[in-house]
Design brief:
Layout: E1 2-5, E2 33-40, H1 45-56, E3 58-62, E4 67-72, E5 75-81, H2 84-93, H3 99-113, E6 116-119, E7 123-124, H4 134-141, E8 156-161, H5 167-188, H6 192-196, H7 205-213, H8 219-229, E9 237-238, H9 240-254, E10 265-268, H10 282-296, H11 299-311, H12 321-334
Antiparallel strand pairs: 1-3, 2-6, 2-7, 2-8, 3-4, 4-5, 5-6, 8-10, 9-10
Helix pairs in contact: 1-4, 2-3, 5-10, 5-11, 5-12, 7-11
Length: 338
């Protein structure tokens, strides 16, 4: 089945604009790209696909009982039931006689307890505004987000392309995030169900202290330290896809997980999906991430902040999280980074 829709839905003029990060180009001079993954419930696969097509235009295809795709001039948007078992069997059923019947039924049931996920292609920074129409269209169709489920812990994933694949750039982002991670949890108002889940664990404090004590580690040191402390996909900032882009065999030796897909991008998983709220948009989540972008571009400020973090660390107790978060909130304002 294919349906072609053109023009897209109107944007909600109340939605905030996407901020532009300080570093907007890659080493080749191209605009950096950003991909989003959006999880929600409340819709069947078909309804979700039609809402995406209404918002963005393009050619909507039914790929299986568990997956649809929107073929658009800026790439392919995947709409899928986020359940590996169902997707695998839907693919295996293919066109076999009767194969789709039970899968259609199963997909309807799954939509009640398993999130629908919209996976956007990597878009250049100047194309992000086209996504403004997406959330209102899904919301108006009945999509519900994080607060609707104590099980699924729905969220938004941001895949921001790294400006350069070198040790200096990677370390700048890594340390910037580590220093801000507690503040980011509070600023995103991460839902209690998502905090309790293992999927968005923060970096261990021992690893943050290690980053603060370093000045400019080599790529080999970055790999060794990260894989020693974070040999898992379950991190709020999951670097395994990016590290796999640099040296996939080394990552596979440490974490044997086929779900790791190499790509030159950070995999940021903290934001809630609050799609049911009219004052929420993908730009809300992206603009908070841009604080990491701003600090990553200021290595001299990172050095100051690292020294402050280390000075507050006490034996056994470490750094007081609440006091650090309050300090960061004021510090970011004082340095015009938010």
């Amino acid at each position: 089945m294919a349906t072609t829709l053109w023009g897209g839905a109107a944007m909600d003029s109340q939605e905030p604009a996407f901020k532009m990060p300080p570093v907007q180009e890659t080493a080749s001079g191209d605009l950096r790209r950003v991909g989003f993954e959006l999880e929600f419930s409340g819709l069947t696969l078909k309804t979700a696909g039609e809402a995406v097509a209404t918002a963005l235009g393009g050619d909507l295809q039914q790929d299986s009982a568990a997956e649809m795709s929107l073929h658009h001039e800026h790439g392919c948007f995947n709409i899928e039931i986020d359940w590996d078992f169902l997707k695998r069997h839907a693919s295996e059923a293919g066109t076999r006689e009767g194969g789709e019947g039970w899968l259609d039924l199963l997909s309807q049931v799954a939509a009640l307890v398993v999130p629908i996920e919209v996976v956007c292609p990597p878009l250049p920074l100047d194309r992000l505004p086209m996504l403004q129409a997406l959330v209102p269209a899904l919301r108006d169709a009945g999509a519900r987000g994080t607060e609707e489920s104590l099980i699924a812990a729905y969220g938004v994933h941001i895949n921001a392309e790294i400006p350069r694949l070198d040790a200096e750039t990677l370390f700048a982002y890594l340390r910037a995030f580590a220093l801000l991670q507690w503040w980011l949890v509070d600023t995103h108002k991460v839902d209690i169900a998502r905090r309790a889940s293992p999927y968005i664990d923060l970096y261990p404090e021992a690893y943050v202290r290690l980053l603060c004590a370093q000045r400019q580690p080599s790529m080999d040191e970055i790999f060794s330290d990260y894989l020693q402390h974070n040999a898992t996909r379950n991190r709020a900032l999951d670097l395994l896809p990016l590290l796999a882009e640099i040296d996939e065999p080394r990552v596979r030796r440490a974490v044997d997980d086929p779900r790791i897909k190499s790509r030159p991008a950070f995999h940021y998983r903290l934001p809630n999906c609050q799609i049911e709220k009219r004052d929420w948009s993908l730009a809300c989540s992206w603009n908070i991430w841009c604080t990491v972008e701003a600090l990553a571009a200021r290595p001299e400020l990172q050095v100051q902040l690292s020294e402050e973090f280390l000075s507050r660390s006490q034996p056994i107790l470490g750094v007081n999280r609440n006091k650090w978060t309050k300090f960061i909130d004021q510090w970011l304002n004082d340095h015009a980074l938010v």
